[in-house]
Design goal:
The chain has about 525 residues and is mainly beta. Helix content is about 5%, strand content about 35%. The protein contains three helices and 32 strands.
Length: about 525
């Protein structure tokens, strides 16, 4: 994924994903006395309780405007939440600090001289054209809601499907509707879809001097969120055929004997992206935007497009891959005898060469305040393959992810913000040694790295307990990027959350207690 503004948080944002990924935390309870089925104290006696909020952002204000790593207040569903200092907000395919969230530019920016706003809250002046959604997970500490994890999207589960009916090669805009019959122009009930791509990775650049309505909701420029069903990176040609875009060559989309573009094929040039064409059936996700089009002013600024196309890479080359979904257990916590902890992680993804599925591997990415990503390989007891190219990794996470020692720091790694999925093909060197930097090359497909995909975790699973007892608090001290601090690219020096969303701020990663 990409960090805002313009920094790579590489990653991923599959809204996989698209952000499509909500944190699902069961708020259950544990017994104070093992096996006796009774409580020794009333529920209200506990001073730290977990909470999960999912809803429209009603109000969002900075505590110290312009402070680089400052704090904020956010109101969701009528509940005011403290957003601590050093918070990194996760967007569908980008990261941003609180200062960057408010810094803009964004379509609801206030007039010059007025107090700056996020443009995300219903009470902002001017308000956004559509409500934005926040998912916040935190703890209630002595009566105050304090966030640990903050995710923002317009609607995390907002997607649409349809056929590409026309392509405007001047603007890069797609017209999407219910049939593959081509149209001239794009009028309702068809949807206007424009890729929010600030650097032109997947087509025409959609940067701040052109049309990008909000770079916080951009594509992932390091991991293809504009992709085929099996993960192959897709693109919109920058010129109309028969002219050839060298970064999105129409020659990479072969036709059948009848002259129709194929949907399953081996790409002629595996080092280049495959173009989207008329008639492709796509699923897209993004944010609402508005321009001066007098007949159809609303359009979707897309951060994710999944095309029902399956280009395969030929044997002997590094395949592409992407992750459809991942969730990560954040246990174990010794909260009480009745607690149940999630000690396994299951990840589902695709690769463009099914022969490489046995080499699919996953790494925790340890990142300190220096912003350097280092790998820590996790044990994968089993790899399951369903449809061609799809795989599922069942990871024995408890001893490997939570208790492994980072060879660079000498401390327990803890649960990470990001995971690296990689094809550990012996022909390309096999597994990465623990502590080695995340590979940044070789580059293919207009700047993408084949054979790997970095994705942030949108779904942390915390401890569950017994119904009717006090719920165990979320153990954020086991999340290394919150307890130890974090960094990304040139954005370094992000420290521990303050105030800490728990009873006591940890001195290091601690996965043994809640």
């Amino acid at each position: 994924m990409s960090s805002h503004p313009g920094l790579s948080y590489t990653q991923a944002g599959s809204l996989g994903r698209a952000l499509g990924r909500l944190c699902r935390y069961a708020l259950f309870l544990c017994l104070a006395l093992a096996g006796m089925g009774i409580l020794t104290h009333p529920a209200h006696a506990q001073t730290v309780l977990p909470f999960s909020l999912i809803g429209h952002i009603e109000k969002f204000t900075e505590d110290s405007p312009g402070l680089r790593l400052g704090s904020a207040k956010m109101t969701v569903n009528g509940v005011q939440v403290v957003i601590p200092k050093n918070t990194v907000v996760v967007f569908p395919a980008a990261y941003a600090t609180i200062d960057q969230v408010f810094d803009g530019p964004h379509p609801s920016a206030p007039l010059a001289g007025a107090a700056r706003t996020s443009g995300l809250a219903m009470l902002d002046t001017p308000p956004p054209i559509a409500a934005f959604e926040a998912t916040i997970n935190g703890n209630i500490v002595n009566g105050t809601y304090i966030a640990g994890l903050v995710f923002i999207s317009q609607q995390s589960l907002n997607t649409a499907d349809g056929f590409i009916k026309s392509i405007n090669f001047v603007t890069g805009e797609l017209c999407v509707g219910s049939s593959p019959l081509p149209v001239v122009g794009c009028l309702p009930p068809n949807a206007r879809v424009r890729i929010n791509d600030p650097i032109g990775r997947y087509g025409l650049a959609d940067g701040p001097t052109k049309r990008s309505p909000d770079e916080r909701f951009q594509v992932d420029t390091d991991n293809p969120t504009i992709h085929a069903a099996n993960g192959y990176p897709m693109c919109v040609p920058r010129v109309a055929p028969p002219a050839v875009d060298p970064l999105c060559p129409i020659t990479n989309r072969p036709k059948d004997a009848a002259g129709n573009f194929q949907t399953q094929f081996v790409s002629p040039n595996p080092a280049q992206q495959v173009p989207l064409v008329l008639g492709d059936y796509i699923t897209f996700s993004g944010t609402h935007a508005k321009d001066a089009n007098p007949l159809n002013p609303l359009y979707v600024s897309a951060h994710t497009i999944n095309a029902n196309v399956a280009p395969f890479t030929p044997a002997g080359v590094t395949p592409y891959m992407y992750l459809e979904g991942t969730n990560l257990g954040a246990g174990p916590t010794l909260v009480c005898p009745g607690a149940e902890c999630t000690n396994r992680t299951i990840d589902t993804g695709f690769t463009t060469d099914p022969a490489h599925t046995p080499h699919a591997a996953v790494y925790a990415i340890d990142v300190g305040q220096d912003g350097i990503r280092r790998t820590r390989k996790l044990v994968v007891p089993s790899i399951r393959q369903a449809v061609v190219g799809r795989f599922r990794l069942n990871i024995d996470k408890a001893p490997q992810l939570l208790n492994s020692i980072n060879p660079q720091t000498g401390i327990a790694g803890g649960a990470t913000r990001e995971l690296l999925f990689r094809i550990d093909d012996p022909q390309r060197g096999g597994a990465l040694p623990d502590g080695s930097p995340v590979p940044t090359g070789p580059l293919t497909a207009n700047g993408l790295v084949a054979g790997q995909y970095i994705v942030p975790t949108f779904d942390y699973l915390f401890a569950e307990g017994q119904p009717g007892a006090v719920p165990p608090s979320f153990n954020f001290q086991c999340l290394a990027f919150l307890a130890n601090g974090w960094g990304i690219g040139t954005l370094t020096g992000i420290g521990q959350l303050s105030p800490w969303p728990g009873a006591t701020a940890p001195t290091s990663v601690n996965c043994a207690t809640n």
